[in-house]
Amino acid sequence: MIYKIAVCDDSTTDAEYITTLVNTWSAASEKMVHTETFPSAEAFLFRYGEEKDYHMLLLDIEMGGQNGVELARKVREENESVQIVFITGFPDFMEEGYEVSALHYLMKPVVQEKLFAVLDRAAAGLEKQERRLAVTYDRQTDFVSLDRILYLEAQKQYVCIHTPDRIYRMKASLREMETSLDRRFFKCQRSFLVNLSHVVQIKGNCVVLKNGEEVPISRGMAEEVSRAVIALF
What is the mean pLDDT of the segment spanning 48-52? Predict the structure, then answer.
C-alpha cells in the first residue's frame, strides 16, 4: 500500500520540515508514501475536488483564509476514513478536533518521535480499514470494507450485512461469516454480530450505533459489551 499524504501549512519552512520527517518515517518503517504539500486550505480543496484518495492529512490550524479545522470539516462531510492530524502552535482548537475525529494533535515544533508514533497509529488504522469481506449475492461478489459494516443479522439460511448505504443478503450462516471478520465484531445476540467501532451507546437491551440504528443484545449482556468496546480501543 502506498500512503498518499497531504501536508497543508502556510509556512513553507514548516511544511518542508514535516515532509522531511514523513519521508524519514517512510524509510525507517519501510512504508511507501506519496507526499504533497499545500500552502492553504483552498489549495488543498481545489486538488481534493479531483483526487479524493488521500490517506492522511497533516494540517496546520492557523492559516490565512480557511483554517485547518474548517478544512477538516469539509473533508469529513464525505470521507470518514482519512486520518487527520493537526499540527499547530495553538492548543485552543482541541474540542473542534474531536468533532472531526482527528487522530491526534501535535504541537510545533514537532518532535520526530511523536510524529512517528502518530504516523504508526494512522497506518495501523488504515490497514485495519483495508480488510474486506467477500459478499456473494445475485451471482456476483462485492468486496466490502469491514470498516463499513455496521452489523450482521442472521435470517434463516441467509445473513444480512448492514452498511451505511445498503443491506447485502448472502446465503450463509452467521458462524461461517464470523470466521472472516476481526476482533471488532462481537456476537451480542444469537442472531447479531455488531461492529464495536460503530457503537456510541450501550443500553440494557440494545446498542446504539453512530447512525442512530439500534442493534439488540441478549439480556445481561450490556456489561460484557462495554468491556469489549473498552478492550478494542
Answer: 86
HEC-encoded secondary structure of 52-83: CCCCEEEEECCCCCCCHHHHHHHHHCCCCCCE
CB 67 within 8 A of CB 61: yes
Q: Tell the burial category of 31 from Cβ atoms under 10 Å away from its Cβ (0-12, 13-18, 19+).
A: middle
Q: Which helix (H) or strand (E) holds 201?
A: strand 199-202
Which pTM value belongs to this model? 0.59
Q: What is the pLDDT of residue 196?
A: 93
C-alpha to C-alpha distance for 57 and 85, rounded to whole angstroms:
6
User: Cα separations (Å) of 169 from 106, 142, 157, 172?
Assistant: 44, 12, 10, 9
What is the 3-class SS of 119-177, one letter each residue?
HHHHHHHHHHHHCEEEEEECCEEEEEEHHHCCEEEEECCEEEEECCCCEEEEECCHHHH
Residue 131 corresponds to which cell in the numbers above? 480488510
C-alpha cell at 42: 483552498
What would the grid cell of residue 227 be?
468491556
Render pLDDT for 15-24 as a digit per residue (tens, 0 to 9): 999 999 999 9
Closest CA to 210 of 187, 229, 223: 229
